[in-house]
Write a structure and sequence with these properties.
The chain is an alpha/beta fold and 441 residues long. 43% of the residues lie in helices and 17% in strands. A hairpin with a 2-residue loop joins strand 4 and strand 5. The chain is globular and about 90 Å long. The chain starts with a helix and ends with a helix. The N terminus is likely disordered.
Length: 441
């Protein structure tokens, strides 16, 4: 969607309460959550960082929608925006057709908190170390009074703690007394005791041992079957995502580059970044893994200087991000119905020749302009402002030097302190001259 269209898109009216059901699309699926042209920005002015750019996708009721990408791509940022922690700079997030971003009524805000829960990546940092497990799980019940009496609350807490594989006697203990896997179970129990419709699972298994990962995934699958819970599953491990997801969205540097059904995405990974992620999945056979050739994604293959890329539907419920020329190429590849190969396995002799050729190649030069965007020591330390306040002339000189070497934050701090110092000095001199003039008169 172009910027012109994006800016003309009207925001949906916010209701005071959520409807019982969301809108149904042309395929007869209920759309539970919908992101429309979402931008998320951190900082202001020159320091602003656009973490998510024009993100759009739908999540259907009862499905597991996985959002995958490398670290820093914007996955968690989107997840936190869904639970209203990160504000949207542009666009909107709809839940059951009702806008939940921006300023909304208090009654709606409480319903959103009640219906959307989150399981965090770090099970240790997400739990209050000073609270017992009983209180941690019961906190939501207390806040929304989701129990008839004390006996009903205890019954609900004991039931959910047993469902996640722990014992009622664990309720009197503190988080530090548990292992990582047990802590994640407590976090899952805290979310599920609220009986939510949507759970944002932010890499819930990345900090766990391999044997424990399967147990947590089985728990998530169990709750989905028994309660019809919908998941926004955030991950970077495609080998796991393939088997637990109904649909997958791929994000790269804040842009949603591909969205498709799980098997469709693995059979026809059209965007080169998706192919690079799939090629990075380890092969269980060590000999095959040794002879594997990775598919490397090079962003310079795209030419977006003439027209802006868009996320377009190429059929088969498959969306790909690209220019018009790229979209036509992707459509032709998909209509050929020939699954794409992202992993190449060579013979030991071919692999040896390939490695020798790679060693002979000149290393890819580092783009200096990228390094100069945010220099390592460009922190804008407050002491630059303090020193420039008392030594204004030197502060101005230092600011000009920093600016020349693209240390924008440091230059800004020096200029701010120097200007404040000069203004203060001017005010003192002005007051002194006025007093001197009054004394002479």
């Amino acid at each position: 969607m172009s910027k012109e269209k994006k800016n003309k898109t009207p925001l949906s009216a916010t209701a005071s309460h959520l409807p019982k059901h969301g809108q149904v699309n042309a395929e007869g699926k209920e759309v539970l959550l919908s992101l429309k042209n979402v931008d998320i920005t951190f900082g202001k002015g020159e320091d602003a960082v656009r973490a998510v750019k024009n993100a759009s996708f739908d999540i259907y009721k009862g499905e597991t929608f996985s959002l995958v990408g490398e670290s820093g791509s914007g996955k968690t940022t989107i997840g936190r925006a869904v639970i209203r922690v990160n504000p949207c700079a542009n666009g909107e997030i709809l839940y059951k057709g009702v806008r939940i971003t921006g300023k909304i009524p208090h009654s709606l805000d409480r319903e959103v908190i009640r219906n959307i829960q989150m399981v965090f990546q770090d099970p240790a940092a997400s739990l209050n170390e000073r609270a017992t497990v009983d209180y941690i799980i019961s906190e939501g019940l207390y806040n929304f009074h989701l129990y008839k009496n004390e006996g009903d609350r205890v019954k609900k807490v004991e039931k959910i703690i047993e469902e996640v594989g722990l014992l009622p006697e664990h309720l009197t203990r503190y988080p530090h007394e548990f292992s990582g896997g047990q802590r994640q179970r407590i976090g899952l129990a805290r979310a599920m005791v609220m009986e939510p419709e949507l759970v944002v699972a932010d890499e819930p298994i990345s900090a766990l041992d391999v044997s424990i990962r399967a147990q947590v995934l089985n728990l998530l699958n169990k709750f989905q079957k028994e309660r019809g819970v919908t998941y926004l599953f955030i991950a970077h491990d495609l080998s796991i995502v393939r088997f637990i997801s109904d649909r997958i969205g791929v994000i790269y540097k804040g842009n949603i580059v591909e969205v498709a059904d799980a098997e469709e995405l693995f059979d026809y990974p059209l965007h080169p970044y998706t192919r690079s992620l799939i090629s990075a999945i380890p092969i269980p056979d060590p000999q095959l893994e040794k002879n594997k050739v990775l598919f490397t994604y090079d962003p310079s293959v795209h030419d977006y200087s003439k027209e802006e890329p868009e996320l377009c539907d190429i059929g088969h419920n498959h969306f790909v991000y690209g220019s018009k020329e790229e979209i036509e190429k992707y459509k032709a590849i998909r209509e050929s119905n020939q699954p794409m190969k992202s992993v190449t396995i060579l013979t030991p002799e071919e692999k040896a020749k390939y490695d020798a050729q790679e060693r002979k190649k000149e290393p890819t030069p580092v783009r200096v302009e990228e390094l100069e965007q945010i220099p390592l020591h460009d922190t804008g330390n407050v002491w630059y402002s303090v020193a420039s306040f008392f030594l204004a002339p030197l502060g101005l000189i230092a600011g000009l030097i920093f600016k020349k070497f693209r240390h924008r934050r440091n230059a800004k701090a020096c200029f701010r302190g120097a200007i404040a110092g000069l203004c203060t000095l001017g005010a003192i001199v002005g007051i002194f001259l006025i007093l001197l003039l009054l004394s002479l008169l």
